[in-house]
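User: Some background: our group keeps a shared notebook of sequences we're curious about, and every so often someone picks one and asks for a predicted structure to add to the entry. Today it's my turn. The entry only has the sequence so far, pasted here. Could you supply the structure so I can complete it?
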Amino acid sequence: MSRGRPSPYRPDFAEQARKLCRNGATDREIADILGVCVRTFYRWRAEHDDFAEALKAGKELADDRVERALYERACGYDYDDTKIFHPSGAKEPVIVPIRVHVPADVGAARQWLASRRPKRWGSVKGSPENFDLSEALEKAQARAESYRREKEAKDAIRFAERVETRVAEELGRRGLQA
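Assistant: Of course. Here's the predicted structure to add to the notebook entry:
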């Protein structure tokens, strides 16, 4: 026998969740749209196989779209667009179809290759696997010391310039030459 109040879950929630996932909604957003708390959402996912499968399928579609977009960004792509001009003296705007080229993005290419070929590209410099905290700390301390010495040198030069200016002003006031 079931205890407590009946679940507000309905079978059509599975299709709604699939569509929401496909469009990039997070679990929290889906729960909010369905009008339940996140804990209820996760309970439904555990209790209703159709709901869990719909979430999985929808997220895979969204991931596929992002993967394709990342691939296109990594390689560069062209797309058709329209430019609208309104030359002075013209009665109507001029509409011109154009082809726009988006160049390849090195960061996107690196991300793609790190995901697809991790043995060759997964440990690209700057990735967490190659991050040595002690080395980074030493470099930061060396930079800080260098900046400190540079600042002290600039301060000393400014001080010397101020002293020279004041001495020259005082000598000029007394009618003497430096």
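Suggested note for the entry: The first strand starts at residue 77 and ends at 85. Strands lie at 77-85, 94-102.
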